[in-house]
Amino acid sequence: MLSTLVLFLAVGAQATQLLDRNLAYRSPFINAPHLSLNTKSLEKRFQSAALVRRQTQDASPFKDEHYFTFFGGNFSNAQVVWSGGVNFTHRVASGDPLDTSVLLWTRAQGVSPAGSTALPDQSVPVCVSFKIFNNPELSGSPADSGSAFTSYDVDWTLKVEATGLQPDTKYWFQFADCTNPASVSPIGATRTFASSTTPADEVNGGKPMTFAVFSCSQFQAGWFNAYGVAAQNTSADVFIHLGDYMYETTGNGANIGRVTLGRELATIKDYRQRLNQYRTDASLAFAHQHHPWITVWVSLDDHEVANNAWKAGSSDSNDTEIGCSFSDSGACFTDRKLAAIRAYHEWMPIRQVIADDKLRIWRNFQIGKLLDLAMLDTRNYDRDITDLDYNRALVNSVKDDEGRSLMGVEQETWFYDTLSESQKREAVWRIVGQQIVFSQLINPKQGSVDLDAWDGYRKNRARIFDHLSNNSISNTVILSGDSHDNWVSDLARPNDTSYDEVTGNGAFGVEFGGTAVTSPSSFGTNISPADADVISRGFVAQNPELQWSEGSFRGFFTLTVDPGTLNATFYGMKDITNPNLDHLEIANFIVKAGENKLSRPVAGGAVTAGIIKAALNSSTSAPATSASVTAGA
Ligand SMILES: *[C@@H]1O[C@H](CO)[C@@H](O)[C@H](O)[C@H]1NC(C)=O
Ligand SMILES: *[C@@H]1O[C@H](CO)[C@@H](O)[C@H](O)[C@H]1NC(C)=O
Ligand SMILES: *[C@@H]1O[C@H](CO)[C@@H](O)[C@H](O)[C@H]1NC(C)=O
Ligand SMILES: *[C@@H]1O[C@H](CO)[C@@H](O)[C@H](O)[C@H]1NC(C)=O
Ligand SMILES: *[C@@H]1O[C@H](CO)[C@@H](O)[C@H](O)[C@H]1NC(C)=O
Ligand SMILES: *[C@@H]1O[C@H](CO)[C@@H](O)[C@H](O)[C@H]1NC(C)=O
Ligand SMILES: *[C@@H]1O[C@H](CO)[C@@H](O)[C@H](O)[C@H]1NC(C)=O
């Protein structure tokens, strides 16, 4: 208890600073005091006046759901800073590196002292210190260090920005309990990016940079083996998640040991509990611990909030009276969205881009003169109404409307400026991370398109093509997720007769659409490679710009980028019904700088799974692997 007392005295003057240092308190609502946690008033609560009150007041009337293990209703042992021991329950994570800073994350929950049966006091903050070094032994003096508070108010999460770092450098970091520095978190590994002016061939110390790209990880659908494979069996430097990092639904994962806790998500407690459970997956925890992540949305894709979200609703909730009552929880969409966003910002090492704009997560990373990585929000930021199942005919009738935007005016303008600025500063590649399939994708059977993808917002897509062509912007590579299947296309205007599907001439770049980490194939849950290929064959024949389609494997892809070449490798998981690292490379694509299309022959002329255009004329598809394959769950 001595350390507690000392810390209390030391902390008195700077408690607000210690609270503010933890970005989880104020983000994502930094300039909206009515929505953010006011750290000044939290400080008051943590200080002596409140302490006295805590010691004399019976806590049993407190029904706040965040206060669920409130010190047995007796405040007598309340302290100002918890010193009974800390549990780093979810290891560590890092994200959104810039050239001289990176976000570091952990979760520090108080535990009862050994031998005590009392629940830890949840009415006081936990104090956590951090140190970051340029070597894995953590020797020498740290490049940055500091302390910050966390508490039940932010679900014991802690997100700090380490600053003053060297560009293009690897770092290792660790957290500790301020009251007992011997109690430490696991060591995390991360890095910074090259400064924007670094010549392309010097970025990453002159070695190619590798990004691992993911989407659609549903807990109940399977084990997150893809993250483990990327972290342990590829040379990935940075992890990119394009959305549907988690799902609001429950579903049945009992047969594979993946039962989701709680109900369909609506309140802050629901969203926190689900993120907590997802992060217990060992492959996911390992990948967060060892690499920086760059993610889009909370809602970032739809399922971080709710299915098929748009700016004022989703398929089962919206801000009308009937929309509120329709959802299981009775929560209206806006309440749900705010709860989802707050929990996401607590649990994810993501930056808040603009303090005034809580929903803005679109942002750009300039990685030397090698590339710009523009991350878009094509889901929740000012998106016009999407296909909500019950309104499909309506959306179909407006899909060509000029004024209809997927991105919102502000984001659209920013995106065009970002592409132009990238070209102007002579970055070689423009990589665009976003949620949904960009290229026209006509279903060969029904002749229909997915109105929840860019096909439902055609004029917005046309404006992007206009901007690329009007400004001669080259080397654009669009990444997409959401569809649960693999789609690789030359980037070409729909129905453009000046595009040649054989040579690729007339294209503006390429699109790599990746399959899901676990969510079931849209071709059919657990569909076999052979059956999926029948469907892929139809899609590839129907759509000129579509060069590869694959619908059986769950997995991810990597992009290895240097100034001359971009190499995309697609990985399939052999079995996601249990935790393992069994995988295979199913296809590989090269894009040469300046060519603005997939290199011919596409995929080197052969793939291990799925259908490439060149295979359409052969009577048999590429041989399926002999390995036994369980694609979905
Ligand atoms: C609260 O705990 C203190 C110290 O452990 C004890 O003396 C006191 O009787 C308890 N009060 C109640 C109402 O249980
Ligand atoms: C620490 O947290 C982990 C994960 O929630 C849990 O399994 C473990 O029992 C906790 N340890 C203690 C001492 O509370
Ligand atoms: C993947 O990495 C794990 C852990 O390092 C290793 O045991 C396994 O052999 C690797 N698998 C392949 C196919 O390289
Ligand atoms: C809101 O949701 C209800 C229930 O799904 C639906 O009937 C209603 O049309 C929706 N309203 C809007 C404006 O989307
Ligand atoms: C591109 O150029 C066309 C024709 O000159 C013009 O109509 C259009 O507004 C331009 N669009 C963009 C996005 O620059
Ligand atoms: C392209 O042509 C197909 C077939 O005629 C049509 O269904 C589709 O709507 C067209 N796409 C656009 C963007 O006009
Ligand atoms: C592309 O990357 C894959 C996976 O690392 C590798 O097997 C292949 O040789 C690379 N291709 C080229 C042309 O560099």
Describe this structure in words.
This protein has about 625 residues and is of the alpha+beta class. The chain has 13 helices and 24 strands. It has a nine-stranded mixed β-sheet with strand order 5-2-1-11-10-9-21-22-23. Helix 2 (about 15-20) crosses helix 3 and helix 6 runs parallel beside helix 9. The longest helix has 16 residues, at about 410-425. The chain binds 2-acetamido-2-deoxy-beta-D-glucopyranose (7 copies). One 2-acetamido-2-deoxy-beta-D-glucopyranose binds near residues 318, 320 and 322.
Strand and helix layout:
Layout: H1 2-12, H2 15-21, H3 39-46, H4 48-56, E1 86-95, E2 102-110, E3 126-133, E4 144-150, E5 157-162, E6 170-177, E7 180-184, E8 188-191, E9 209-214, H5 225-233, E10 238-241, H6 268-278, H7 282-290, E11 292-295, E12 313-314, E13 317-318, H8 321-326, H9 333-347, E14 363-367, E15 371-375, H10 392-398, H11 409-424, E16 429-433, H12 458-470, E17 476-480, E18 486-491, E19 509-513, H13 529-542, E20 546-550, E21 555-561, E22 565-573, E23 583-592, E24 611-612
Parallel strand pairs: 1-11, 9-10, 10-11, 15-16, 16-17, 17-19
Antiparallel strand pairs: 1-2, 2-5, 3-4, 3-6, 6-7, 6-8, 9-21, 12-13, 14-15, 18-19, 18-20, 20-24, 21-22, 22-23
One 2-acetamido-2-deoxy-beta-D-glucopyranose binds at residues 440, 458, 494-495.
Quick description:
Helix content is 21%, strand content 22%.
* Strand ordering within the main sheet: 5-2-1-11-10-9-21-22-23
Percentage of residues in DSSP E strands: 15-25%
Could you give a short account of the major beta sheet? Answer: 9 strands, mixed
Number of strands: 24
The number of helices is: 13
List ligands, each type once.
2-acetamido-2-deoxy-beta-D-glucopyranose
pLDDT averaged residue by residue: 84
Structural class: alpha+beta
First-to-last CA distance: 51 Å
Percentage of residues in helical conformation: 10-25%
What is the overall shape? globular
pLDDT < 50 stretches: 1-13, 49-57, 62-78, 298-302, 621-633
